[in-house]
Amino acid sequence: MQRHLISAADLTRDDAVLILDTAEELARVADRPIKKLPTLRGRTVVNLFFEDSTRTRISFEAAAKRLSADVINFSAKGSSVSKGESLKDTAATLEAMGADAVVIRHHDSGAPHRLATSGWIGGSVVNAGDGTHEHPTQALLDAFTLRRRLVGGPGGGAGGDLAGRRVTVVGDILHSRVARSNVHLLTTLGAEVTLVAPPTLVPIGVESWPCEVSYDLDVVLPKSDAVMMLRVQRERMSAAFFPTEREYSRRYGLDGRRMARMPEHAVVMHPGPMNRGMEITAEVADSGRCTAVEQVGNGVSIRMAVLYLLLSGAGPAGVPAPAPAPATTRSPEESK
Ligand code: NCD
């Protein structure tokens, strides 16, 4: 593992499988009456959120706390960022707080990379979503969910990865960091990814991505093992990308009738927040085939694994042993 997690594209297959297997081990902690491990005691994790978030922020907080780290939550609203403070000055404050890891969500694509490579801070940087670029921990929790649902947990399938599984990602691909990270990670793990969207919401240069593109959802659904619905990201749209909401739902929304075209074993995913009635109907969102809530729970295990692997200098997967007690004996050097 590298020191930072900025992009799913940086993960090798071995890195990704190590994170997924570690998350599987750590998920067991959630089943215990006391959901805490002492592994990151004395370490400080800062959640630095410049953009709104519900699931990602509380899940990083829960993950850090379950590993006994100290957590500082920083949101741009109500901080000096709203007075115009720069990322560099904010970074200097975090450094003064002794942050061992900074989990950053930012509206600008590239902000986490800047933080990681600028030399402004000494700790690890974890990208929790940057602009329309990447959201690697979301892709990891999606892969974890797929592995559990379709492959049967660690060791299942070909080496526990997603070889040959067909994942269809539907909707606002253009503005979606979730789609971008998933295309990279899922293909690294052996899955075949197809993007389905109106032509106006397909990014320029998609030909160079390791996936197929289709404009016809009904044709792709019967060949899918999982269908990932994306939120239409109105806050990132400066123009009209489709005629009306009704027209969008009619062609690219998932309702009960469409879901019936999917193979029986296939699941419906959504990263949240959902626009019910737009990209997904309430009937589908609330059905047993929709993994949206399960994805949120799995997000805690994945973020525990990422923080654990980045901060404890751990090697292979496994529930970590308790942190070593502070040294009480002096080294020969000191005794002299
Ligand atoms: C996504 C995000 O913020 O990129 N949500 C999330 O992290 N759970 C997707 C979205 O906002 O639509």
UniProtKB/TrEMBL annotation:
<comment type="function">
    <text>Catalyzes the condensation of carbamoyl phosphate and aspartate to form carbamoyl aspartate and inorganic phosphate, the committed step in the de novo pyrimidine nucleotide biosynthesis pathway.</text>
</comment>
<feature type="binding site">
    <location>
        <position position="105"/>
    </location>
    <ligand>
        <name>carbamoyl phosphate</name>
    </ligand>
</feature>
<feature type="binding site">
    <location>
        <position position="138"/>
    </location>
    <ligand>
        <name>carbamoyl phosphate</name>
    </ligand>
</feature>
<dbReference type="GO" id="GO:0016597">
    <property type="term" value="F:amino acid binding"/>
</dbReference>
<feature type="binding site">
    <location>
        <position position="83"/>
    </location>
    <ligand>
        <name>L-aspartate</name>
    </ligand>
</feature>
<keyword id="KW-0665">Pyrimidine biosynthesis</keyword>
<feature type="domain" description="Aspartate/ornithine carbamoyltransferase carbamoyl-P binding">
    <location>
        <begin position="3"/>
        <end position="147"/>
    </location>
</feature>
<feature type="binding site">
    <location>
        <position position="231"/>
    </location>
    <ligand>
        <name>L-aspartate</name>
    </ligand>
</feature>
<dbReference type="InterPro" id="IPR006132">
    <property type="entry name" value="Asp/Orn_carbamoyltranf_P-bd"/>
</dbReference>
<dbReference type="Pfam" id="PF02729">
    <property type="entry name" value="OTCace_N"/>
</dbReference>
<feature type="binding site">
    <location>
        <position position="177"/>
    </location>
    <ligand>
        <name>L-aspartate</name>
    </ligand>
</feature>
<dbReference type="InterPro" id="IPR006131">
    <property type="entry name" value="Asp_carbamoyltransf_Asp/Orn-bd"/>
</dbReference>
<dbReference type="GO" id="GO:0006207">
    <property type="term" value="P:'de novo' pyrimidine nucleobase biosynthetic process"/>
</dbReference>
<feature type="binding site">
    <location>
        <position position="135"/>
    </location>
    <ligand>
        <name>carbamoyl phosphate</name>
    </ligand>
</feature>
<dbReference type="Pfam" id="PF00185">
    <property type="entry name" value="OTCace"/>
</dbReference>
<dbReference type="InterPro" id="IPR002082">
    <property type="entry name" value="Asp_carbamoyltransf"/>
</dbReference>
<dbReference type="GO" id="GO:0004070">
    <property type="term" value="F:aspartate carbamoyltransferase activity"/>
</dbReference>
<feature type="binding site">
    <location>
        <position position="55"/>
    </location>
    <ligand>
        <name>carbamoyl phosphate</name>
    </ligand>
</feature>
<comment type="subunit">
    <text>Heterododecamer (2C3:3R2) of six catalytic PyrB chains organized as two trimers (C3), and six regulatory PyrI chains organized as three dimers (R2).</text>
</comment>
<dbReference type="GO" id="GO:0044205">
    <property type="term" value="P:'de novo' UMP biosynthetic process"/>
</dbReference>
<dbReference type="InterPro" id="IPR006130">
    <property type="entry name" value="Asp/Orn_carbamoylTrfase"/>
</dbReference>
<feature type="binding site">
    <location>
        <position position="273"/>
    </location>
    <ligand>
        <name>carbamoyl phosphate</name>
    </ligand>
</feature>
<keyword id="KW-0808">Transferase</keyword>
<feature type="domain" description="Aspartate/ornithine carbamoyltransferase Asp/Orn-binding">
    <location>
        <begin position="164"/>
        <end position="310"/>
    </location>
</feature>
<dbReference type="GO" id="GO:0006520">
    <property type="term" value="P:amino acid metabolic process"/>
</dbReference>
<comment type="pathway">
    <text>Pyrimidine metabolism; UMP biosynthesis via de novo pathway; (S)-dihydroorotate from bicarbonate: step 2/3.</text>
</comment>
<dbReference type="GO" id="GO:0005829">
    <property type="term" value="C:cytosol"/>
</dbReference>
<feature type="binding site">
    <location>
        <position position="56"/>
    </location>
    <ligand>
        <name>carbamoyl phosphate</name>
    </ligand>
</feature>
<dbReference type="InterPro" id="IPR036901">
    <property type="entry name" value="Asp/Orn_carbamoylTrfase_sf"/>
</dbReference>
<protein>
    <recommendedName>
        <fullName>Aspartate carbamoyltransferase</fullName>
        <ecNumber>2.1.3.2</ecNumber>
    </recommendedName>
</protein>
<feature type="binding site">
    <location>
        <position position="272"/>
    </location>
    <ligand>
        <name>carbamoyl phosphate</name>
    </ligand>
</feature>
<comment type="similarity">
    <text>Belongs to the aspartate/ornithine carbamoyltransferase superfamily. ATCase family.</text>
</comment>
